């Protein structure tokens, strides 16, 4: 895990980077809930949410050219949403010669805009938060210690499993395999199964090693082990400004609906 960086983390020394992770987690969750709760039939609230996200990018010095390519992860959902106006029922409307469902159009709009804002907010959090800060942050948010321990192990070993998968792929290619060929699907499936078995065996060895070092099944309080200082109320109030803005916009949207 090294310095705690992960592929989506952007090194920086901004106020967003320095904000404790538990504050950013709460801010992210509240912001996403506000976006999801906003009526999809309205348009102006989503422009306000986008302005909040862009403002956070500016403060954190995250360029749009870095974020936008990584947002392509939501492409499958956009394709699914594009089919709704053609398949949904109800009142129909003609747009550019196409007979579309009004309900389907609103549903597609809701999926695309809410998904896009959620992905953008999540990427902002990932770009400014190191992986090593998450366990202590979750502990301070009273997440069960067992789940926090599982997260710690996942963060520790996900890179190892990724490297293992890369070595297995390279070994197949060096032996004449073509991963993009359809007839090699069986070999790829067997490789996935082998990786699963290796991961299971590695997990057993790690557990035995933990037992030999005195592990008794009780998860430690990770918030008290080398964690940074807790956020003060003033910092909470300042850092939650984007989330509170989103809540205010959501409430205004419902009042004016």
Provide structural commentary.
The chain has eleven helices and two strands. It has 257 residues and is mainly alpha-helical. A hairpin with a 2-residue loop joins strand 1 (92-95) and strand 2 (98-101). Helix 2 (21-37) runs antiparallel to helix 6, helix 2 (21-37) packs across helix 7 (134-140) and helix 3 packs parallel to helix 6 (102-128). It has helices at residues 15-18, 21-37, 44-60, 64-70, 75-87, 102-128, 134-140, 145-174, 185-212, 233-239, 241-256; strands at residues 92-95, 98-101. Strands 1-2 form a two-stranded antiparallel ribbon. It is 67% helix and 3% strand. The model has no long low-confidence stretch (mean pLDDT 84). It comes from [Mycobacterium] manitobense. It is found in: Cell membrane. The chain crosses the membrane at residues 21-37, 43-60, 67-86, 106-129, 234-255. This is Cobalt ECF transporter T component CbiQ. Keywords: Cell membrane, Membrane, Transmembrane, Transmembrane helix.
Quick tags:
257 residues, mainly alpha, two-stranded antiparallel sheet, 11 helices, 2 strands
| Oligomer classification | single chain
Overall pLDDT metric: 84
Terminus-to-terminus distance: 48 Å
User: How many β strands by DSSP?
Assistant: 2
Please outline what is shown here.
This protein has 257 residues and is mainly α. Helix content is 67%, strand content 3%. One of its GO terms (cellular component) is ATP-binding cassette (ABC) transporter complex.
């Amino acid at each position: 895990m090294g310095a705690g960086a992960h592929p989506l983390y952007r090194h920086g020394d901004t106020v967003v980077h320095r904000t404790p992770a538990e504050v950013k987690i709460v801010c992210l969750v509240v912001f996403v809930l506000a976006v999801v709760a906003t009526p999809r039939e309205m348009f102006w609230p989503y422009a306000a949410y986008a302005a909040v996200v862009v403002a956070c990018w500016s403060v954190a010095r995250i360029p749009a050219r870095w974020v936008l390519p990584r947002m392509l992860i939501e492409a499958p959902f956009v394709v699914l949403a594009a089919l709704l106006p053609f398949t949904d029922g109800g009142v129909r409307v003609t747009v550019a010669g196409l007979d579309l469902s009004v309900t389907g159009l609103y549903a597609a709009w809701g999926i695309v805009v809410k998904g896009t804002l959620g992905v953008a907010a999540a990427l902002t959090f990932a770009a400014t938060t190191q992986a090593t800060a998450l366990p202590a942050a979750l502990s301070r948010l009273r997440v069960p210690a067992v789940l926090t321990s599982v997260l710690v192990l996942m963060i520790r070993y996900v890179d190892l499993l990724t490297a293992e998968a890369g070595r297995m792929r390279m070994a197949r290619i060096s032996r004449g395999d073509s991963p993009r060929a359809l007839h090699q699907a069986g070999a790829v499936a067997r490789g996935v199964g082998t990786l699963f078995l290796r991961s299971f065996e590695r997990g057993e060895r790690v557990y035995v090693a933990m037992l030999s070092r005195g592990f008794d099944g009780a998860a430690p309080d990770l918030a008290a082990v080398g964690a940074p200082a807790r956020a003060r109320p003033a910092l909470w109030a300042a850092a939650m400004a984007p989330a509170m803005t989103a809540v205010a916009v959501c409430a205004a949207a419902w009042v004016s609906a």
